[in-house]
Amino acid sequence: MKNDSKTEERIKDFLAIEKMAIFGMSRDTTKFGNRVYKNMTAKGYKLFPIHPVQEEIEGIKCFKSIDDLPEKVEGAVMVIPPPKTEKALIDVARAGIKMVWMQPGAESEEGIKYCEENGISLIYEDCVMVRSASANPFG
């Protein structure tokens, strides 16, 4: 993804979202899904973990799907392998979520193309934790 003014605008818009889903929350505290969750919530963001198996991780309630969320979210962070990202994007689009951040390693050509074809604002090849370090709209 080239770093231009449109990319910077998408990043700014994404980081202005207060509530988002996160795909890839892990019980392993060294995994990026767990680290992204903790990093972003410490900055004031409200993240809802989507996990198809776990009901709870470290005392944090997880949701089986985007349809199970108790509140509407405007964005989603993907910290899952590309094939899972591609499947999750279908649910994201159906739920009307228009902003997605694919952490490095979650992106694929198919996923990128899907977002483009479905009007989803996409950020990839960039780390949400690094970018949110200087942007804290809630604190």
Summarize, please.
The chain has 139 residues and is α/β, with parallel strands linked by helices.
Outline the structure in words.
This protein is of the alpha/beta class and 139 residues long. The chain has one domain: Rossmann fold (3-Layer(aba) Sandwich). It has helices at residues 5-15, 32-42, 82-94, 109-117, 128-132; strands at residues 19-23, 46-50, 56-57, 60-61, 75-78, 99-102, 121-124. The strands form 2 sheets. A 5-stranded parallel β-sheet has the order 2-1-5-6-7, with helices on both faces. Strands 3-4 form a two-stranded antiparallel ribbon. Helix 3 packs parallel to helix 4 (109-117). The termini are far apart.
Rg estimate, integer Å: 14 Å
CATH architecture: 3-Layer(aba) Sandwich
Roughly what is the average pLDDT, rounded to an integer?
92
Briefly note the structural class of the backbone. alpha/beta
Order of secondary-structure elements: HEHEEEEHEHEH
- Specify the overall morphology: globular
- How many runs of DSSP E, i.e. beta strands? 7
Query: How many discrete structural domains?
Result: 1
| Number of DSSP helical runs | 5
By CATH, the topology is Rossmann fold
**N/C terminus separation:** 29 Å
The CATH top-level class label: Alpha Beta
Strand order of the largest sheet: 2-1-5-6-7
**What percentage of amino acids are in beta strands?**
15-25%
- Which blocks of ≥5 consecutive residues have pLDDT under 50? none
